[in-house]
Write a structure and sequence with these properties.
The protein is mainly beta. It contains nine helices and 38 strands.
C-alpha cells in the first residue's frame, strides 16, 4: 500500500487496514507520536557483554592472537620473539556493549463505559503507535484490557488481535480489585516500558506509570478529543479532531479491517413521483417506479454488493392513457392502461421509449378503475408470451386479460394482493369479504375457477386489511406458504407451514412486507436464521427493522425521512425512497446496500 511519506514508518501495521481507514488512522498515529516520542533504551551501566569482533589491534590476550601470528611461532620462532618484544603482534579486539534494560513494552487499555464511542478511535491509534514504537526499539510488545478478569496479555498486533481489541469494550467500570490484580502481575524484566490508556479519572490509581488520558469534549462547533500524554519527562496535551464522516467513525469502531463495498450509484435524469409507490418486478431484478412526468422507470438491481448495475429502462405511456398496472420482465414492459373507457395492454420491446398497444383495446361491462389514488401502484403479472395478463385495478378488482383471444375476464372483488405460482397454472390471492370481518386465501386457475380455499382469518370489524405474501417458491402443492395478514389495527398474523404466530405491532408503526426462509436477521438479533419476520417502518420514518413475536432487529437507519418502501421476499431485498427522491435497495442476505439511485440536479 502506497502511503504518504509521513506515514511510512507505520506502513507495516497500517497495511492491515483498507486504504481510507489507513489514512485516517495514520493521521491520528502521527499526531500521537509527536507527543509520545520513540522508545529509548536505558543502559545498565557498569556491565559489559561481548558482542563479536570489532577489529584487529596490537593489545590483548594471547588467547585472542591472530592465527597468522601462531604460524610464525612454528616456522620462524626468532621472528615471533622479536615481534613480541617490539609489541608488533596482532590481536582480535572484542566488541563490548552495555545491555539494555528495556526489553518489554506493555500497554493496558481501559475499555470501560467512559471510553465507549469516539475515545476508542484514539485507543486504536495508540495500539498501533505503541506496537511500532516497541518494534523500532527491539522490545517485545504486549497489550491487554484492564477489565479482563484473566489478566491476559496478548503479544503483537495482527488482524485477530485488532478484532479482539474492538470486542473488548464493556460496560463494566474498572474496580480497585482489578487494578490490584494487574499490579501484582510480574513484569519479568528489570525495567519495563509500561502504559495505561483510558479516561483521566480512571488512570489516577496508576501514578508513576506512562499514561495516555483520553477525554471526550462536548462542543457544538467542533468534534474533537482532549488527549494528555504523561511521561517521566513531563505532561503534554493535544486536541485530536475526529473524522468528519459518521460512516468513517462507524467503520473504525465496528470493523476497520473490512474492505468497503460501495453500493452502485446511479443518476436518474427523470425524477420519481412521490405520490406513487415503488414496486419490485416479478423476477426481483428491477425496481418499478412511476416518474414525475407520468412515465415508468425500471432500475436494475445488482445481485451482490459491489456488482455493476445494468441499464435503466424507461417507458412512456401514449397520450391520454391512464395507468392501471405495470410489470417488467425480460427487457420488456407490460402495461395495463385505460383509454376512453377501454382497457389496453401495452408492450415495449424497442428502445423508442413509448409503449405500444398489443392487439385490440378490450371492452368490459364493469369498468376498470385506473390508478388515481395516491400511493397506489397495483400489481400486473403477464405470462411468458405476454399475451395473458393478470392485474389488479385501483379498486382492488382482479382481472385476467387475454390479448390473443381479445377478451378480458373479471375474477373477483376486494382482492388485497395476489401471487402467480411458478408453474404458471394457478394463482393465490387474498379476498376480503365486503361487510364481513374475515379474509380468505383462495387458490384458483388462470381462468379464475376456485381450486382450493387455503386459509381463513378473522379480522376486526370495519378494518380494510393488508396482506403480504412470502416467496413464490414457498407456495407448493398442498402447502400453506408464507403470508402476513393484518387482523387488527396493531395485530398481525404470520402464517406458514410451521404454524401461525400473532405479532403485535406498536401504534403508528407501518408494516411494509414479510421476509422468510432465506432471510437472515441482521447481526445483533437474538432470533434464529430463517425466522419469518415483518418489515416495519418506524413512525419517525427513518428506521426500518424486522419484527416477529420473539424480538426485532434494525437493519436500515436513514439520514432522510423514508416515504416509500417495497419488499421482495424472493430475493430478500428491501427498497425505499427518501424525501429527497433518492432510491435505495438494501439486501437482507448480504446486509449491504446494493444500489442507490439519486436524482440528477438541475443546473
Amino acid at each position: 500500500m502506497q502511503l504518504p511519506v509521513a506515514l511510512r514508518p507505520w506502513s507495516t501495521l497500517l497495511s492491515l487496514f483498507p486504504r481510507d481507514i489507513a489514512l485516517t488512522l495514520g493521521t491520528l498515529v502521527h499526531r500521537l507520536y509527536a507527543v509520545v516520542g520513540p522508545l529509548r533504551d536505558q543502559p545498565m551501566r557498569g556491565l559489559l557483554e561481548p558482542d563479536g569482533i570489532q577489529g584487529i589491534g596490537q593489545r590483548g590476550l594471547y588467547e585472542r592472537l591472530v592465527t597468522s601470528e601462531w604460524l610464525l611461532a612454528d616456522e620462524l620462532p626468532d621472528e615471533f620473539d622479536r615481534r613480541a618484544a617490539m609489541r608488533e603482534h596482532l590481536f582480535y579486539d572484542r566488541d563490548l556493549r552495555e545491555p539494555s534494560g528495556t526489553k518489554k513494552s506493555v500497554a493496558l487499555f481501559n475499555c470501560g463505559p467512559d471510553q465507549i464511542g469516539a475515545p476508542r478511535i484514539v485507543q486504536l491509534a495508540a495500539l498501533i503507535l505503541l506496537a511500532r514504537r516497541a518494534e523500532a526499539a527491539g522490545a517485545q510488545y504486549l497489550w491487554g484490557v484492564l477489565q479482563d478478569e484473566s489478566c491476559t496479555l496478548r503479544a503483537g498486533v495482527d488482524p485477530a488481535g485488532i478484532k479482539k481489541f474492538l470486542r473488548g469494550r464493556t460496560s463494566r467500570i474498572l474496580t480497585q480489585e482489578r487494578v490490584a490484580a494487574w499490579r501484582e502481575l510480574p513484569e519479568g524484566e528489570a525495567q519495563c516500558d509500561r502504559w495505561v490508556i483510558g479516561a483521566a479519572a480512571e488512570i489516577a490509581p496508576w501514578a508513576g506509570i506512562n499514561s495516555i488520558e483520553i477525554d471526550d469534549v462536548l462542543a457544538v462547533e467542533r468534534d474533537f478529543l482532549h488527549v494528555t500524554v504523561c511521561q517521566p519527562r513531563g505532561r503534554r496535551t493535544l486536541e485530536v479532531d475526529l473524522p468528519r464522516r459518521n460512516s468513517m467513525r462507524a467503520r473504525l469502531l465496528r470493523d476497520p479491517l473490512e474492505q468497503p463495498i460501495r453500493s452502485v450509484a446511479l443518476t436518474n435524469p427523470r425524477p420519481l413521483s412521490m405520490k406513487r409507490h415503488i414496486r419490485f418486478s416479478r423476477d426481483g431484478r428491477r425496481i418499478l417506479a412511476v416518474l414525475l412526468d407520468g412515465g415508468l422507470g425500471a432500475f436494475h438491481i445488482p445481485n451482490s454488493p459491489g456488482a455493476q448495475a445494468g441499464k435503466t429502462r424507461y417507458c412512456s405511456l401514449p397520450e391520454k392513457h391512464r395507468l392501471v398496472a405495470a410489470e417488467h420482465v425480460r427487457r420488456r414492459f407490460t402495461v395495463v392502461s385505460m383509454f376512453e373507457e377501454q382497457v389496453c395492454v401495452l408492450g415495449m420491446r424497442s428502445r423508442s421509449g413509448t409503449a405500444r398497444i398489443m392487439g385490440q383495446p378490450l371492452a368490459l361491462d364493469q369498468l376498470v378503475q385506473p390508478v388515481d389514488r395516491l400511493g397506489s401502484f397495483p400489481r400486473c403479472i403477464s405470462s411468458r408470451s405476454g399475451t395473458r395478463v393478470h392485474f389488479l385495478d385501483g379498486a382492488g378488482r382482479l382481472f385476467m386479460a387475454d390479448v390473443s383471444a381479445n377478451r378480458m375476464h373479471w375474477l373477483d372483488n376486494s382482492v388485497r394482493d395476489f401471487l402467480v405460482l411458478p408453474n404458471q397454472n394457478s394463482l393465490i390471492y387474498a379476498r376480503q369479504y365486503d361487510g364481513e370481518a374475515r379474509a380468505t386465501l383462495v387458490e384458483s386457475d388462470e381462468a379464475g375457477r376456485v381450486a382450493a380455499m387455503r386459509a381463513e382469518f378473522d379480522l376486526d370489524k370495519g378494518l380494510r386489511t393488508n396482506v403480504f405474501f412470502g416467496s413464490r417458491s414457498s407456495w407448493q402443492a398442498k402447502s400453506m406458504g408464507v403470508v402476513a395478514v393484518q387482523l387488527g389495527q396493531s395485530l398481525w398474523k404470520l402464517a406458514c407451514d410451521d404454524g401461525q404466530d400473532e405479532v403485535p405491532i406498536p401504534e403508528e408503526h407501518r408494516v411494509c412486507g414479510v421476509v422468510c426462509s432465506a432471510a437472515r436477521m441482521p447481526q445483533g438479533s437474538k432470533s434464529n436464521a430463517g425466522t419469518c419476520a415483518l418489515v416495519v417502518l418506524h413512525p419517525g420514518r427513518r428506521v426500518l427493522f424486522l419484527m416477529h413475536r420473539r424480538g426485532s432487529a434494525t437493519f436500515v437507519t436513514s439520514s432522510a425521512a423514508i416515504v416509500q418502501v417495497a419488499v421482495d421476499p424472493d430475493t430478500q431485498n428491501v427498497a425505499y425512497v427518501t424525501e429527497n427522491r433518492t432510491l435505495h435497495v438494501f439486501s437482507l442476505v448480504h446486509h449491504k446496500t446494493l444500489v442507490t439511485v439519486e436524482q440528477r440536479e438541475e443546473r
